[in-house]
Amino acid sequence: MIAEPSPASDTSQKCGMPSASYSSVCPVEKENDGQEATAPASAVQNGGCVKNSSNSTPKERKKVQEQCENVRKKNISRRKRSSQPENDEDEVEEMVEAVTLFEVVSLGKRAMQSVVDDWIEAYKEDRDLALLDLINFFIQCSGCQGMVTAEMYQSLHSSDILKKMIEKFDEETGLQYKRIMARPWILTVTWPMELEDEGYPLVKPGPHWKKFKANFCEFTAVLIQQCQYSILYDGYLMNTITSLLSGLTGSVVRAFRHTSTLAAMKLVTALVSVIQNLDVSIHNAQQLYEVEKNRTPEGETGPRLDELDRKRKECQQKPVEIENMMNALFKGTFVQRYRDVIPEIRIVCIEEMGSWLKLYPNMFLNDSYLKYVGWMLYDKQAEVRLKCLQGLRGLYEHKELIFKMGLFNTRFKSRIVSMTTDKEPEVAVEAMKLVMLMVLNCENTVSSEECEAMYHFVYATYRPLAVVAGELLCKRLFCLPSGEEEPPNAKKKNKFVYSLRRLKKLITFFLNHGFHKHVTYLVDSLWDWEDGLLRDWECLTNLLRDKPMRKEEAFTDAQESVLVEIIAAAVRQTAEGHPPVGRGSRKTLTAKERKTQMEECARMTERFIIVLPELLAKYSSDTEKVTNFLQIPQYYNLNVYVAGRLEQYLDALLTEMKELVHRHTDLNVLEACSKVYSILCGEQLAIYPFVSEALHHLIDEMVMDFSQLIGEFFQEEDGLGVNEEHIFRMSCILKKLTAFHNAHDLTRWHIGDWTLKILNFEKENGGLPAETLIPALQCSYFALLWQLELVTESLVTETPSSQETLSELSEKMTCFRLICESYLNHHNKDVSEKAFILLCDLLIVLSHQGVDEDEDFSLLKFLPDHDLQSRMIEFVKDHVFGENNLPEEMNREEAHRLDSVYRKRIILAEYCKLIAYNVVEMMTAVEIYKHYMQTYHDFGDIIKETINRTRHNDKIESARTLIVCLQELYQNHMATYRSNNSRKKQVDSSASFASIKELARRFSLTFGWDQMNSRESIAMIHKEGIDFAFHGDSQDIDYYLPPNLTFLAIISEFSNKLLKPDKKLVYYYLQEFVTDHMLLTCKGEKWHPLYCYRSSLIGTDDDAESTIASSFREWPPPDKSKVFATKRKFSDGSIMDISLPGSSRQTMDLQSDSQLSYFSWKSKTVTSEDIVDEPGPTEQDIAPRMGDSPESLHEEETEELNEDIDVVEIDEGNL
Where are the domains of the chain? Predict the structure, then answer.
């Protein structure tokens, strides 16, 4: 607060001006109780003007820093409500405390209009005192807890004034000084430097400070609103405020810049509102003048006419003055701060600029102001770009404003279009909305090619973006060509033709833009904008049922297929009411929305119950259409069959599905039919007996045919004499039974026994085609799972399971497992891969038997032995990684290549599940990890997820697989290097070594940012890596060169994951392997990996080779008479004591617990300074240009070690 003028005379006062001695300290905010603490009255300072506080003695400056807030008691009555009860002592005390503008606005207890009216009244009595109160308000809102002094500057020359505008730091007292010009004063703000980094009111968290920001913005708006009829045009108020805010915006202190910029921008917005009101006043004044002038005889004037003319001219002059005020604030604040390094300040500037452009286009809607918005479209902060687009959208929504934006469209249209692919989804959505307005309201601004590119976003994963693109597509696709007008009531007169025309446009769009095949996503994007077209079930079905009246109305086969897909997708969208997979989670529907959805679903069900059997009969020969039609019944409201008495249509549906099962052998159709039967066979449904009987009758027919064929097969010389037609018929029925066995329990028909017999026959004799073996494998697996399910249910229902049943099931599973193992080497690739997939699934099932269930289930438990694991990993290597470099694999068409990748992903995922569920040894993953880099594009996600899952199971063992993988790759690299006699070429300069190093970097990234959680794993990797680098037989001419020294360059990729104290411990361990002879001979490029690894541990960047040996002597050898016992407390609560002997190296075994017991440390001094992280760089508050600071600012990673290290000196004799 700036205190009242002292009654003492000021020797520097000139020209009869009042005293210029004003000083105070800001209050301290208390967020918890929502009130502001004030200093006692005894703390009020009544001293003279402090002209240059930096020249005071240190004692005086310290006194200035520590003094409390002065309490100005004058005009307290203005702060009280007139209706304040006298007997309410608590409220009276509260109102007495709120004596400054900052306190009143911060508390928010009074209406802002009454607060401003009180201030205006005080301004009219003593404008200097009121202005100082307002200045103090802006200073306090900046969070300044320092002292403010003021002095007159009228007597100073302009050069002297500029010299006083300084901002400096006094190192002796730790105080920061800021000089600001606020006519007619020069303000000096003094505050402690240590308070600069504290939060200020505008950015402090909590509801209190959020409300304060709203009150602050409201105060600035109401201030201008209430002053517009009195003191706004006195030439004194706005000059002072403008100079003050302009001075604060030039400060290096973020709080001053942010607060002053927000205040200035809100003031301009309020002035825009004032000038809008003036337009009405000018119009009214002009009308009154014209009326009075018409009444007055020509050539005569009267007092009333003169008064109206004077008022008219005053009203016409006011907009000019207000525009001058806005220009001063704009140039003094916006131009200086729209490129500020702080994003919040840039956001304030651009957000208010958007409102000015829309509210007062006569002044702001020109290229001089629009250019700032265009420039900020390139801002690095997403929120700034978003505000720019939102402001522009407000302009493009009004066609009358667009004609002024021709140059802006030419300059920045391409940038706006490109922002639809912004990395921030919200920005991309806003850009798409803006492009849509440009397309609809600005003719020929967006080209047709750019529009076509926008249409593709209907398939975007982010649903809001896809919905906006769908709106654009509907408005452009369904509109009539230019020059044509749709006849009135055209939709009602011929609804069929109207819908037909629109559907044809939609289908043509989908077929012509064949870049995507997912109709479901197209329907979801158009769902909110298609005007009921996709929910007009009667029209959609009639287009397929009825024959077209004219030839041009007929659909082609491709168009019919797309229409059927659209119908199926629309049915799903209606029934589920949520977007498809990949477009967000299910949205919660309100009760009204849920009711509407249920009504629409019932209407859809009634329609398709009637027409679906007819459509299935019409398109029964078309596999694709039938498959899509069979997706519809799963979304039925099945109670409609009984409620609507539509049982005859159920009979028709079952009849058609039975015909489809007998007619088709396509797996998709058969599985769709099986799923429909499964849905209709719900035991709680009234139609269950009827559907169940039809299903059993169908299964009986298929089983009878199959048993007859299988009997003939084994009667003809053990199957060797049957013809191909017989085998083909048997394969077709087996496919159908397999499809139904997937969703239905067919155990009582004993189909699994027959399929096992077929598989055994192939195992012993061979000769059966893949079309028979693949469904036989699948059907056998389903049969075993259904039997296991029955046994498990008996356990749940506490029905005793006979030992006979379990033994029989165990024998069948063992038989099927052995068959799958033998089929791994089958000559048919499809059969071998199917056997592998089923074997993996079966092993997962068997490995978890007898754990939580009855002990009898242990008969079923099985874990693969080492031989089987080796065969399976070899199968993965051959079928997944072994074909990547084959010529025929590279030359395949894109569609075939994608199918091959999909098949390989399934195989790899199946085996990785075995690793993740501990069915096979974790070390087998080494062979998979080796191909991480080469196959990153196709299988990188699977391998990375495997690493994460195994790390969750066992961190230490998972880390060991990574280091073993790197070691084996390194050994292969060295073997190739030595076999090629590449002595002249450096080991670490080849492409294969670089790929190993890159793989290590990728492995390091999988550990994430939690260093505490991974510290034991990282330590083990370094320990294993160092041992590997220095052990083994040297193959180099230099006998003392470690055999695998270059491996240190690989494990250096993990050094950044070590905690600071662990880096020193790893460095001590490394020193134990460096002998004295190595220190004397470690010269040349061969020793460079050792130096690089050492640098990654201690953080030096010196490249001089001469420092390699000396670097190992940086820490002096320890005193042999003492050792240091380090007690380390880990996150799991365990305590580890590490003795650091100084004589000999002791080998310690690798542990898999949470302690760092991997190293035999050499004695070194460990101090508390080794544990504390170094402070990060200080962030700069301001930069000359907006783009300079983001590159220079680095967010330091702050990790809490959560560990206690006590260093205790122990006499060696007492150990």
Answer: 863-953, 970-1100
